[in-house]
Structures are given as C-alpha cells and as structure tokens.
Amino acid sequence: MAPPSAISPERASNGDTIPSAIATHEPGISESRAKVQMPKFPEPPKFTDKYAERDYLKGRLAAAFRIFGKNGYDEGVAGHITLRDPVQPNTFWVNPLGVAFSLITKSDLIQVDHDGNIIDGGEVRLLNAAAFMIHGAVHKNRPDVLCAAHSHSIYGRAFCSLGRNLDMITQDSCSFHDDLALYQSFNGIVLAEKEGKDIATCLGKKKAALLQNHGLLTVGETIEAAVFWFISLEKCCQAQLAADAAAGGRGHETVKIHDDDAAFTYKTIGTPHAGWFSAKPLFDVIEKECGNEFLQ
Fold it and tell me: In terms of pTM, does the model score above 0.90?
C-alpha cells in the first residue's frame, strides 16, 4: 500500500470527498496498478555444522574490517567489530589491538570470553579494553545480536558532539526511525564495567546508538546488517550536518519527514533482512578487490 501522505482526497460527482486511489508519487497510476511483484530476495546462509558456521562468519568478519578500513573508519588503534561465536555463544571474536583494519585476516581474530580472557586466536593477542567493556555488555544484554560495530568515524563523532538524535530528513534516515538510541554521557575511554553496561542498557532493543562525544555503535542479527547500519548511519550524520548548515545559512530549517511516512519507510529499508541484503554489494566489492587474502 502507499504511504499515508501519498494518497490525496478526490471529489465525487455529487461534490462529496472520497478517498483517492491515485498515488500522488505516480500521477495517473492507481494504487492497485502501482503494486508490483517484488522478487524473492536471497537469505543468509544456514548451517547445520556450527564449526563450519564459525569458519564462514570469521571470514565475513575479516571482510567487514576490510570494508571499514576502505571507508576510513580506522584511526590509530580505535574501533572494533565483534562476532558472537556460534560454537560458544558466551564468547565473541574481535580484532586484536594494533592490527590495521585493512590488513586483518580471519586467522588474526581473537576469541574472548565474557570475563575478558583471550581463549583463542592469532599471534597478536592484545585486547582493546574498551572493546571488551562495550561489546561484552552488549552481547550479554542482547542474545539476538550476532555482531556489534563501533568506530570513531568522522561524521559520526562530529554529529555525536551535538548531544541530539537524528532527524528524519532523508529516506535513508528512516532506517533508524524509532530505532536509534542517544547515550548522553561521556566519562572518557570506556574502561569501567559500569559504563559498558550503561551503554548496553541505553541501546536497549534498538539497532544503533549515538554515543555523545564519542561515536556510533550499531548491532545486527548478521555481520552484514551491523556493517551496513554503521555505514548508513555515518552517511545520515554527514547528510544532516550538511543540511543543517545549509538551512541555517539561509535562515531556514530542514523539512522533516512525517512520522507516519518515516514508519512506513522503515518497514521496507529498516528491517534486519534489509540491512543484510543492503550490505551485499559492499562485501562483493571487497572480495573482488582483496581476493582470498582476508580468508587466510
């Protein structure tokens, strides 16, 4: 069906107002004719062997770091993406501290339990304490989350300095309609267990959070969704910073999307499956560019 604001009233021959069957976004096309048969989208792969699933997911996590590196989301040793282990769900895999995103391979990843102990992984077994505090709390608080991503991206941290939530000003921002938390605290590098728990509590059941004076945090039922939500949120922050500056310079405000329309759009582009499928081109490109190197 058409979004709430896409249908305008019509006048009957007797002058009465009747609901229109014309979607104003497609002049002259009735709502029934505007409907198309959507293709059946592929689904994430399913595994009966948990060890085979682990091996596949570690490869996808390594690819995710390559994507973050390509997008410039690395700065020094900051930033981390974690994967809940399918064999031992009370543990997760993460990047070792000090290894560049753009060089990470599957064998570099380290496995950490919820007490912060490194129990398996590559040669570099250095754990980012902030990664453990934030991601450990998120994975513990959200059994549905397979992957969590956090980094100090430029536009994300710039927007997070404003201490406000995202406006629904673009179609893409509707992916985060009522699904974006705002963590309004900053106590330095997250080295305390309490702040990690506070961030996880603030995130709640949402898929992303703006960490004030810090940066973006996204989660997903798949690695691909968590990665795509991060990239999309970063671009939404960039778009709003530019739009607010342009509008302010002219003495105006940005035009906000109506709440009903934002909710309608969210149902198409803000779902877990939409996030997974939207990331497919990103992973396809990085596989083409890197070959099998990250799978080593």
Answer: no
